[in-house]
Amino acid sequence: MTNLILKKRMLHMCVLVLILSMAVLGCSSESVDNSSENATSESSNTITFAWPRDVGEMNPHLYNPNQLFAQSMIYEPLVSYQAGGELKGHLAETWEISEDGKEYVFNLRQGVKFSDGTDFNAEVVKKNFDAILGNLDFHSWLGFIPKIAQTEVMDEYTFKLTLTEPYYPTIQELAVVRPVRFLGEAGFPENGDTSKGIAKPVGTGPWVLEEYKVDEFAIFKRNENYWGEIPSVEKIHVKVIPDAETRVLAFEKGDVDLVYGEGVISIDSFNQLASTNNYETSISEPVATRQLLMNTNKEQLSDERVRQALHYGFNKEALVKGVTSGLEEKADFILPTSFPYTSEIAANTVDYDVEKAKQLLDEAGWVLPEGKTTREKDGQPLEVELMFNSAESVQKMMAETLQSEWAGLGVKLNIVGVELPTQVERFKANDFDMNFYSNFGAPYDPHSFVNGVITEGFGFIETISAYPNKEELFNQIAQVLQTTDENERQQLYTAILSSLQEQGAIVPISYLRQIAVYQKDISEFTFPANRDEHPFTGISVNE
């Protein structure tokens, strides 16, 4: 992959993270109002779901303001991402990959209908791929898309994809919610270009958009002709409630049945609702890792002993428990070990040890002069800045805790809160000493995470610039994305992830989790393995 494509890819992924983090903001006013003035009356077999933003146009090939969970209700992938990173056939029952890793032949599921009754087949798969490739600038962030050399219809239910070079994450990337999901023929505009909009949302999924009023609500009814297991719930009513506290009030009044996601309500609100025993609550397995990145281009952080000292010098378990009230879990590794290829990370875990931290700082030449509170070396103070998102209370509280703990080591930590766009831009521009970050999660990692490490203009190159084996890491990352040997791939990931962590510039803080709180008449709620998928599979209402 060229540096330019990698850069585009990772910058686009960064924008996606920004969009998810800014979910409390209002959506674009360009969505089309195609509903009556008020939502229709609901049956008792309806779940009302609160969400911060309008669901958008429901274009499977575009991004903001289309909401990921809603897109995944209507549109389906060739391959689905399951617990533990298992990739399972969905609209494609099986597939074969050539020995050179360039050709993928998909055997499509027969008998699948779009919601308008038309057939799902190889022709419509090709039409969707070609629409995506016609707007490559939008989609080149997804690694396999710029590598597509050819799309072919081999017969009615056989589709072939040919790449310019081997790229093993292709199957995993086909599981993401957008842009490679499938719009029916009737949904395409006359010119076939979906980048400017679609005629109507026609998918193969278990839900159909029935009613929609921009910035107010969207009602999805179940697809009675769905090829798979038909949902037990008749309708999902999405209420757009931008303010988190208003969502909580609506839930307590009984106007909302389910609140779900990351950051959709405060930790205090979740714990208060859980403590009443009037509702059901759930917390997911880890979906990503909250990390602290140290810029090794900065003189004070260029020495591995200093970085390791800072890691030893704060009580991670107490910090995570105190700030998140147990909703996040102390992280020992830079990626959750439930992701593919991450279970064998060989990095040593770091336990809280103030004396060890002080010893490492002394060995690195940073000494505490008599009568002073900040260590010095060659007349320069051990002073660094930590940037955090001013709108995220968890980052702020963690920054304040680190500031206090490291002061006891003789390290002066200046903390500065900035708006999220500024945080992203400063990170990309290498204008930071330390920064909070979280990886993209399933189904993007680990390959998206290691891609970020070698992408210029994304902050990670600066983070590991002082690593003595930097060039070896870059070569290993390029190799792991192309190898067709599963054992070699595992060995490379183990080496890459272990080395990145061992040298201390990427410090795992906590594992992020999704939360759900729902009324007691809701049952069979489960979290999807794919971080971006909807949570309505199998859910039911007890009447």
* Main CATH class of the largest domain: Alpha Beta
- Describe the oligomeric state of these chains in a short phrase: single chain
- How many domains is the backbone divided into? 3
> Beta fraction of the residues?
15-25%
The CA-CA distance between the termini, in Å, is 54 Å
Q: How many extended strands?
A: 23
CATH homologous superfamily identity of the largest domain: Dipeptide-binding Protein, Domain 3
Sequence-ordered SSE layout with sheet pairings:
Elements: H1 3-21, E1 46-51, H2 68-74, E2 79-81, E3 87-89, E4 92-97, E5 103-108, H3 122-133, H4 136-139, E6 148-155, E7 158-163, H5 170-173, E8 207-213, E9 217-222, E10 235-240, H6 244-253, E11 258-261, H7 267-275, E12 280-283, E13 288-294, H8 304-312, H9 316-324, E14 329-330, H10 354-363, E15 376-377, E16 380-381, E17 383-389, H11 393-407, E18 412-418, H12 420-428, E19 434-438, H13 447-453, H14 460-463, H15 470-482, H16 486-502, E20 506-512, E21 515-518, E22 522-523, E23 540-541
Parallel strand pairs: 1-10, 1-11, 17-18, 17-19
Antiparallel strand pairs: 2-3, 4-5, 5-7, 6-7, 8-9, 9-10, 11-21, 12-21, 13-19, 13-20, 14-20, 15-16, 22-23
Helix pairs in contact: 8-10, 9-11, 13-15, 15-16
Put the structure in a nutshell.
The chain has helices at 3-21, 68-74, 122-133, 136-139, 170-173, 244-253, 267-275, 304-312, 316-324, 354-363, 393-407, 420-428, 447-453, 460-463, 470-482, 486-502, and strands at 46-51, 79-81, 87-89, 92-97, 103-108, 148-155, 158-163, 207-213, 217-222, 235-240, 258-261, 280-283, 288-294, 329-330, 376-377, 380-381, 383-389, 412-418, 434-438, 506-512, 515-518, 522-523, 540-541. The chain is of the alpha+beta class. The longest helix is centred in the N-terminal third of the chain and has 19 residues, at 3-21.
